[in-house]
Every structure is written in structure tokens, then in C-alpha cells.
Amino acid sequence: MRLGVLDVGSNTVHLLVVDAHPGARPLPAHSHKADLRLAQLLDDSGAIGDEGIDKLIAVVRDALQAAEDKGVENLLPFATSAVREATNADDVLARVADETGVRLQVLTGAEEARLTFLAARRWYGWSAGRLLVLDIGGGSLEIAYGMDEEPDAAVSLPLGAGRLTAGWLPGDPPAPDDVRSLRRHVRTEIARTVGEFSRLGAPDHVVATSKTFKQLARIAGAARSAEGLYVQRELKRESLEAWVPRLAGMTTEQRAELPGVSEGRAGQLLAGALVAEGAMDLFGVEKLEICPWALREGVILRRLDHMDSD
Description:
- The protein is α/β, with parallel strands linked by helices.
- It is 46% helix and 19% strand.
- The chain has 2 domains: 2-106, ATPase, nucleotide binding domain (Nucleotidyltransferase, domain 5, 2-Layer Sandwich); 124-295, Nucleotidyltransferase, domain 5.
- It has helices at residues 50-69, 81-85, 89-100, 109-124, 161-168, 176-198, 211-219, 237-248, 252-255, 263-266, 269-282, 295-309, and strands at 2-8, 13-19, 27-34, 74-79, 105-106, 131-136, 141-146, 153-157, 205-209, 234-236, 287-290.
- A 6-stranded mixed beta sheet has the order 8-7-6-9-11-10, with helices on both faces. It has a 5-stranded mixed beta sheet with strand order 3-2-1-4-5, sandwiched between helices.
- The two termini are 16 Å apart.
- This is Ppx/GppA phosphatase family protein.
- InterPro entries: ATPase_NBD, GppA/Ppx_hydrolase, Ppx_GppA_N.
- Belongs to the GppA/Ppx family.
- Residues 26-305 form the Ppx/GppA phosphatase N-terminal domain.
């Protein structure tokens, strides 16, 4: 069966097409992505304005056409923090449904964390033991921990790289005082959750997903994405700590010249690095492994599980 998962995120709208059936790993067949920056289209009241909704509808239509072109039989559309937190979310969802026929499922932050955890667990298997999974998106940071396929603890914090950049780092490069203020804010927010996870015991394996972690690992020396999914990629806290002040002193244009850093994500990389550094420090993580699978794969795997049980 050819499945498509349509991910309406804070930064991008991403259609991932896979060939999949219960009991087998999903095989990527096509990827269609648009940099919508939906979180930046919120007005002062926290609503997505008409212009933003129009852009979203246009992008969803393009994704639908791509899905049709690639022979997708079943489309799994969902939205994350940008739509979830918009004050007019119901109106946005209604207009998208009316004008495209796509009914977006809005995931809660905890659902994002659980589905991402499922993807990581399936990728690494039971031998990974107790798994701690970190994911930095455009609007939120997800943290999940557990021994099984359902995590024992899963939280979502408003510490996405795009959100923090827009709210805390107006300069290019940012002012040192702004960087310090953001660093304090990030660590205060993460520290509130550490106790909940610490009571469950130390993890056996720590992994991270998301474009932010992949780019941080790449500038710290990890293998290029062109070398394939099965090449192990790690990010050491020591390397990240050395990179944070360097990123803070760079302009967006300079960051975009770093290996593996896209122009569209370069402006958010410092905020993402501060979140990654804070999480690794407060959770006592010296190094973590980059997981190729994340939320989209988790949505697909959950759908396949339901098909298998029907």
C-alpha cells in the first residue's frame, strides 16, 4: 500500500510518501516540502490571518496534487503546534477542510512526543533498553522516556527553535544579553520537567530526532545525509557547547554557509542549539544518537498497527 503523511508543522508543510504494509518497515518513495513558516504568520492576537490561511490552503492543494501524482491510496494529514495554538484554530481547520477536502488532525504535544517515541523505539528495537527521546520542532520541544513502545513519560514544552528565535533573538547576530536571557529561559523550562524523568531511572540510550538536531550533529562532524540512513550519527555535548558561542556570533547568512545547514533553517539554529545544549546538560547526557525516524514515521507506524489489528 502507498501511504502519504501530510505534516503541517510550524516551519514546513511536508508530504512523505511511503510504500508500507503491516509487519514491514515503511520505504520512502517521495518527499514534497514547502517552507510555509506558519508560526510566523500569527498576528498579535495569536490568530492565523486570512493571508496565512490562504497560503496554507495553497500548499495543502499542492501536496494533494503531489500525492495524487504518486499514487497515494491513503493520506494521513495532521497539524502540530502552530495550528494547535492558534486562537482561531477551529476556523483554520474548517477552511482547509471546506476548500481542499483535507481534515487535519491536530495532535497534542503529548501525542507528538508519544508518536516520535514509537518511531525511535521501532528504529532501535528492544535492545536499546530504556530510551530517552528528544525532538526540537519549530514550535515545541518533545521529551519522552520509556522501556516499551508507549513511553512512561512524555511532555511537550514551548521551546521550538522558530518560536524562540522570533520571541527572543531579534538581532542578526543577536545581542549577547538576548542570548543569555534565552539561555536562562530555556533551562528554567526544561529543569521543571527533569524530576519527572529522573524518578524513572537513567536511560540506556539517548536519541534525538528533527532537522535541528541533524544540522547540529552535521556541523559538529557527523556524516552527511547523502551517506544514507544507516550511518550512525552522534552529537556530543562537548562539541555542542563549543559551537554555541560560535553560532551566537554569526549572522544568519554565515550560519547558512555551514555544512548541512539550510538557508531556511539557519536563522533558527542558535535557538535550537541552546535548547539542545540545555536538554543534554540538565538530563546529564554526554552524547546522543541521531534517529532517522521521527513524528511522520510514528504516524505511519501507528496507522499500520491499526490496520493489522482490524
